[in-house]
C-alpha cells in the first residue's frame, strides 16, 4: 500500500514540477554559419513550449501578428532568396475571427542564405524578428527579438533570449526613453497574480470526479461491485488483512487509470492532445465516436473489448495471490468498463490537456479514478452493504440510455467546431439549439416513461429521481428556447456556436465609451476622481473576444463599468506607427518601440511584469493597483465581485 501511495504521490508531484517550470512559451536562438568562402546561412531557432503556437509567415489582415524578419543593416552582404522554415506550418480556420490562420506548435528553425560581397570578407548584419504566440487561454503580445552578427559570423550579443517576460528583470530605464510621465502612471508596481491556475485545476478535479460517479452508475461498471465483493470474500483472510487489501485495490484502480491517462497524454503530448479541442479533423472524429456510442447505448448494438482480454486478466487474478492478484482484479475492472468509460475518459483528457502540461490530465484522471475507487474500496471492506445495494436490472439500462442522450447532445458541440472550421454553415446557432431542445425534451419524456427503447422495461410508475431528472431536462429545453431569437444563454455559452452565426438576433451587445490611450485615460480619470479599469487586449486575441461577449456584454457588467470606472482598452497588436519611436533597455538589451501596440505591450511588461492577454487591472489615480489582476475567466459573478472589490478599496483611499 505504501508503495502504491508513494508512486501516485511521486507522479503527481513530478507533473506539478514540470508544469511549474513552464515560464517562457517561445524562445529564440540565432546563429550564423559559413557554407563557403563567400556564402553563409543565418539560423533562427524558435523553441515552443507545449500548448503554445507561433504564428506563420503570412496571415490575413485583422488577425494575429505573423512572424517576420526585418533587416535594419546589411553591410558587406546581400540576401539570397527569403526565409525558409524547416517545415510547413499547420493551417486552421479560427472560429472567432473566421480567418484562415497557420502556425507551428513545436520547435521550428528558419534559415536565411546570404552572400558576402565585401572583398575583405568583413560584414555586419542587424535586424529583428517580430512574432506573436498564443495558447487556448492567453496570447503573448506581438514581440520583437533583435539579432546582430559581425565579421566571421560571431554574434554580437547572446542569441538565447526569452520573450514571455513574466517577470521583467530590468524594469528601470532612463527617463529619456520612457514617455513623459511626471505623474508616476508608468511607475512599475508589484502586481499580485491571479488565482486562475489553481481554480482551473479545481474545475478539472470536480469534472473528473463527477465523470467517475457517472461511470460508476453505468451497466459496464455497476455489475462489477458484486464480483469485487465475491473476489475478496473468497480470499478468506482476517478483518485487518481484508481492510488492507481493500485499500490496495482502491489504490490500484487510481494508479491504473492515472497511468492510462498519462500514457495517452505522453504519446500525443499535452499540446497535441489539446489540439483535439480545436482541430477540425479530430472534432469530426470525436463527433462520430460519440454518436456511435450513443446509438449503442440506445440498444442498437454493443461495443466492448474482445472478451478474451478481460477473461485472460480475470483468470490471472484467480490464479495469482497477494498484491498481484488484487492488481489484476483492478485491471479487469478497467477493461470491462471500457465501453462505458471510454467516451468519458476521452472527453475528460481533451478538456484537461488545455493546461498545456501533464498536470491537468493527471488531476482529471486521478479524480475520475478516485470516484470509481471509493465505492469499490468501501464494498470490499463492508461486503454486507451488498445486500442493501440495488440489483442490476432495467434501471441500469435506463442509465445507459440517459447517457446516450447526453453523448448525442455533446457530440453536436464537436460537430459545431468542425462546421465553423470548414465554413460549411450547416450547424448555425439556431439549428444547434433546435437540436438540443428536441434532445432534452425527448430525454425528459423518456424519464417520464413516455418513450421506450428495445431493451427498456415498462415503467409502471415514475420514481422520485426520474421525476426530478425529467424536470431538469425539460427545464433546460425551455431555457434554450429564447436562444433561438438571440438570447445570450450564458449558462451554455461554452457549448453552443457563437452569436455571429445566428441569422435572426434580437440581442444587442453592450457598448462602452473607452479610451485607447493610457495617459489620456489616466488624466481623464484623475480629473473626474474615478478609478481606472485597464484592459490589455489585442485584435488577434481570441479569448479577449470571448471575454467581451460572455462578460462585458452582460447588463450587470456594463452598468457596473460604465457607472463607476474609466475604461482604458489598450490593443497590444495595434500596428499604427508611433509619431516618435523610442528605445528601452529590457533584460539587458535594447528594444525598439515603433508602433502603438509595442508601446502598450511594453507598458504591460514594464509596469505590471506581465505579457499575456486578456489582462485586466484596476488602478487608482496614481497608477497603483487596487486589486489583484484578472485574466481569462468567463465567470460573470466572479468578475463583478472583482470589480466591486477594487471599487470599494478605491473609495476607502479617498
Please tell me the overall pLDDT.
75
Please give the share of residues in helix.
40-55%
| Range of strand content | 15-25%
Task: Count helical runs.
Answer: 18
What overall form do the CA principal axes indicate? globular
Spans of at least 5 consecutive residues with low confidence: 1-23, 153-178, 194-199
Strand order of the largest sheet: 5-8-2-1-14
What is the count of β-strands?
A: 21
**Rg of Cα set:** 29 Å
Sheet of most strands: 5 strands, antiparallel
**Tally of domains:** 4
Describe the structure.
The chain has about 650 residues and is α+β, with helices and mostly antiparallel strands. The chain folds into four domains: about 25-165, Sandwich (Immunoglobulin-like), CATH 2.60.40; about 195-390, no CATH class; about 395-505, no CATH class; about 515-654, Glutaredoxin, CATH 3.40.30. Helices cover about 45% and strands about 20% of the residues. The chain is built from 18 helices and 21 strands. The chain has a five-stranded antiparallel β-sheet, with no helix packed on it. A four-stranded antiparallel β-sheet has the order 6-7-3-10. It has a four-stranded antiparallel β-sheet with strand order 4-9-12-13, with no helix packed on it. A hairpin with a 3-residue loop joins strand 12 and strand 13. Helix 1 runs parallel beside helix 4, helix 2 (about 195-215) runs parallel beside helix 10 and helix 7 (about 305-320) runs antiparallel to helix 8 (about 320-335).
